[in-house]
UniProtKB/TrEMBL annotation:
Biased composition (Basic and acidic residues): 32-52
This protein's GO CC annotations: plasma membrane
Compositionally biased tracts (Polar residues): 1-31
Keyword check for Protease: no
Pfam families per record: RDD
Keywords carried by this UniProt record: Cell membrane, Membrane, Transmembrane, Transmembrane helix
Protein source organism: Gemella haemolysans
Main location per the UniProt record: membrane
Region described as Disordered: spans on this chain: 1-52
Localization in the cell: Cell membrane
Presence of the UniProt keyword Cell membrane in the record: yes
RDD domain location: 71-196
Protein name: RDD family protein
Amino acid sequence: MNNELNNNTPSYDPNLNETSVELENDTIQNEESTREQEDPKETEERVDKKEKDLSLPTTIEDYMNLSKNFYAGFWTRFVAYLIDMIVIYAIASLLNTFSFGLLNKQLDFPILGEESLSYVIVMFTYFISMTYFFSQTLGKMIMKIKVETNKGDKLGLMDVVYREVVGRLLTIFLVYIPYLAVAFTNKKKGLHDFIADTVVVKEDFSKLRRQMNEKLESKN
């Protein structure tokens, strides 16, 4: 009986133990090697995924969905316009006190009245110069919006003239009714924007919008 128990008791085999250790080490090395090979790939996949999440949209549908946030809405532009009118009236009143009153009397402009001529001159000078040099009036600066071409570029002189003279005169002539189009069109454009092919965008989205336009154009 004792002999049978002794026979069944596992004996210590140094060679077997060394073989097991070697196999275990090989397994660990293989796992580490596999991990080292997979890590760059996993890292690349994570980077690609991150870049994909932050990348610019490549389809028209994605562009349209994102572009809804680009454009300044009706009330934002309305407040900016009111601020501009206050600035224009203040400048016109100040200048009229010193010089334009005499100019009006010398020109004898009864249709506009004594103060109206100075107001008109200041208004168009203000809108043309501010839009051309800064792409913003003071009102737009306060509301953090700016005027760009439909492609996202700075307006040229003729763009400004079309927008601020032709477009604005037509809008005033039609009792500002065309301005209501800002509330209903996709890009929040008024009549003067359509005439000059311009848009009014939020400052924070101006650069992104230009990059998106460039990327979409490069794919066409």
